[in-house]
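tool=predict chain=A
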Amino acid sequence: MRILFMGTPEFAVAPLEHLVREQFEVVAVYTQPDKPSGRGRALLPSPVKRAALALGLEVVQPASLKEAGVVAQIADFHPEVIVVAAFGQILPQAVLDIPRYGCINVHPSLLPKFRGASPVAAAILAGEEVTGVSLMLMDRGLDTGPILAQEKVAISAQDTTGSLTAKLSQVAARLLLEVLPRWTRGEITPQPQSEAEASYCAPLRKEEGEIDWHQPAVDLWRRVRAFQPWPGAYTRWRGKRLELIEAVPLPAQEPLAVGQVVALEQGGAAFGIGTGEGILGVVKVQLEGKRAMSAAEFLRGQRGFIGVVLPD
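tool=predict ok
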């Protein structure tokens, strides 16, 4: 089976590696163009590109799939199926029509829930206890095609978008290996999605990370987890960004001003911050220009922090 793989972030690496490990014929890997990163703005290859080159696969990085020449190049690979995992571009109909067995999208949610660009973070933000992976046959819509297979994954209270994405990636890889042979043998009947149950999630924006202390502690705890590793949930202390890397929601024992910092020794938190409802206990932080550290270590280096009202 000739497979053309399309993917970009870390989530897509395990599915690609498992296909190669199990001797599937991956004829080419398409990924997003290298992007400038860091202070020097050096071009950084995507995780999928790095993995594909390490596996000795041909890598193609078109800026767009809409150009006739790009579509023709895809057709020249003669793929029997195209596997897409967080590629980052919409596939035009001309590409969808190329492979005999269609284009299969690997999506990290239980579709039709959380269609779109940030399904892992969206599940955490919504307080879901379970999410999963869906394999769907792609059509012209945004994650709207019929389902080939799904598998559920529990969301733990410690999960961040980073840790949950890693779990889902491994599940996706295993599910893909099971589904591909069955699909091409005609053993799977695609199941239409219920539009009545559909929900969508937009890409995360950097500015969404700034904390509004008027929100309940439980909601802020979810944001800390959902925005880790990017864009990070943060407030301001003495004009610098203070990122909360790990936190825990706690009940307020006494009335606190919104944003007020208090000393704590509860739930692993060294200090807490008053919210619209309850206290957000802080376990791990990173002050702008400094390394990440425990909240207790941060307190030892920041005299006068207890009692302030954030943002400051």
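The chain has two domains: 2-201, 206-301. The helical segments are 13-21, 47-54, 68-76, 93-96, 119-125, 161-184, 217-226, 295-301.
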